[in-house]
Amino acid sequence: MKVLAISGSLRAESYNTALARAAVELAPEGVFVDLYEDLALLPPYDQDLDEGESETPRAVVDLRERIEEADALFIVTPEYNGSIPGVLKNAIDWASARHRGSSFKNKTIAIAGATTGQYGAIWAQQDLRKVLGICGGRVIEGELPVSGAQLRFDARGELADPMVAERLRAHLAALAAEVEPVAIAA
Ligand SMILES: Cc1cc2nc3c(=O)[nH]c(=O)nc-3n(C[C@H](O)[C@H](O)[C@H](O)COP(=O)(O)O)c2cc1C
């Protein structure tokens, strides 16, 4: 089973990207997590670039294909001013443009979020759930809030908190079970 992980942060030392990377290691057997790393290549959403004479930007075509090819998604969001970052919303808007059909339709999705503050991007995750639901995605139950993120990762950006690792492992197992209930249970 293929899971595409998307981090909503462009920062090189992003805790959210570090959490998405940790998912590559902690995924259950048979689940392969691939990290999407091209968020910064997406232009600001513009419907004119996507229809008529225009050739849809290569980065947008690639994003849509990678979402559509994946069996499930794992989307990890920072919280900016109580919501999801603009760059993540921009990617979601490109991949769900209404005039061409949404790449998220019926896609099973787990969400998570890391912040340096004490609430672990819980508002951003609530907004992300709402937005993805409107785009036709099936967001599994449960958030994964990682608070005090600067304390959970070591200097190399490796997840160093066993409790968070355990929660992440369980979250990914729940995602896999939603997609392939029988195969994963066996
Ligand atoms: C513009 C901006 C707004 C922020 N707003 C919030 C917020 O509303 N809630 C919160 O917990 N953290 C907030 N933060 C702190 C981020 O959670 C913190 O910078 C986090 O490390 C960003 O994620 P990253 O490490 O993946 O880049 C904000 C940071 C920025 C730059």
Give a written overview of the molecule.
The chain is α/β, with parallel strands linked by helices. The protein has a single domain (2-185), classed as Rossmann fold. The protein has helices spanning 15-26, 58-69, 86-95, 122-134, 162-179, 181-185; strands spanning 2-7, 32-36, 72-76, 108-114, 138-139, 145-146. Strands 1, 2, 3, 4, 5 and 6 form a 6-stranded parallel sheet that branches. Helix 1 links the parallel strand 1 and strand 2. The model has no long low-confidence stretch (mean pLDDT 95). It binds flavin mononucleotide.
Cα-based radius of gyration, to the nearest Å: 16 Å
User: Could you give the count of β-strands?
Assistant: 6
Q: Please state the overall shape, judged from the principal axes of the Cα atoms.
A: globular
Q: Determine the CATH superfamily.
A: Flavodoxin domain
Largest sheet features: 6 strands, parallel
Termini distance?
Answer: 15 Å
Strand content: 5-15%
Q: pLDDT below 50 for ≥5 consecutive residues: which ranges?
A: none
> CATH class, please?
Alpha Beta
- Write the H/E string, N to C: EHEHEHEHEEHH
Spell out the key features of this protein:
six-stranded parallel β-sheet; Rossmann fold; binds flavin mononucleotide; 6 strands
What is this entry, summarized?
The protein has 186 residues and is an alpha/beta fold. It has helices spanning 15-26, 58-69, 86-95, 122-134, 162-179, 181-185; strands at 2-7, 32-36, 72-76, 108-114, 138-139, 145-146.
